[in-house]
Specification:
The chain is built from 3 helices and 10 strands. The chain has 204 residues and is α+β, with helices and mostly antiparallel strands. The strands form 2 sheets. A 7-stranded antiparallel β-sheet has the order 3-4-5-9-8-7-6, with helices on both faces. The longest helix is centred in the N-terminal third of the chain and has 31 residues, at 2-32.
Length: 204
């Protein structure tokens, strides 16, 4: 009789152990089925500065103009032509600008090449919108290009007096970004470029 009770208890504990083991497996499987979304390392901080501008009149650069106080204007001496980079450290983005002398003989060709540099992005751009600016009194003519879609540059511009120079620039981010996530930065820089166009003039 004692032997039968002992066997019964053994079977009971064995069965209870199997039950606990199966319950543990079920809980583990259920936990694994929960959705898991990896957290990003961080997001680009977008907190545009209040609008304030400073004059850029670098020695050796043919033009002067105003840029945002939050930006840096650095002449690129690594190239033969006159280049200046407008850097926004806070937003990790740069407007690469080039000054190109023109005359009656080459201006048509240079204008065409500059326009081609913009519209070659049409392969990936969903839309390229050109906004014209003109100040005949100052002999100032400009075009601001806004490119939407999966393009390397979302913003380009050209400004000229139609006689002696063409000044062009293109905005690039230091790292790949999603257009929607940096829309406030693009809008901020667009306003800066419009101010640059309105204040640009040859160095005296």
């Amino acid at each position: 009789m004692k032997k039968k009770n002992k066997q019964a208890r053994t079977l009971y504990y064995y069965g209870f152990g199997i039950f606990l083991f199966m319950l543990l497996i079920l809980l583990t499987v259920a936990g694994c089925r929960q959705d898991y979304s990896p957290k990003p390392d961080g997001y680009l901080r977008i907190d545009p500065h209040p609008k304030a501008y400073k004059l850029i009149d670098k020695t050796g650069f043919p033009l002067s103009f105003e840029i945002s106080q939050s930006a840096q204007g650095i002449i690129d001496n690594s190239v033969a032509s006159a280049w200046i980079n407008i850097i926004y450290p806070r937003y990790k983005t740069t407007v690469y600008c080039t000054y190109i002398p023109i005359d009656k003989k080459n201006k048509t060709c240079i204008f065409a090449e500059s326009k081609e540099l913009v519209y070659r992005h049409g392969i990936k751009a969903e839309k390229i919108q050109a906004q014209l600016y003109e100040n005949a009194e100052r002999h100032l003519y400009a075009t601001l290009y806004s490119l939407t879609g999966n393009t390397a540059t979302p913003l380009q511009f050209t400004v000229t007096d139609s006689i002696s120079y063409l000044f062009r620039g293109a905005l690039y981010f230091d790292t790949p970004v999603k257009r929607d996530s940096v829309a406030p930065v693009i809008e901020y820089v667009t306003q800066d470029i419009m101010h640059l166009i309105e204040t640009v003039q040859p160095q005296k």
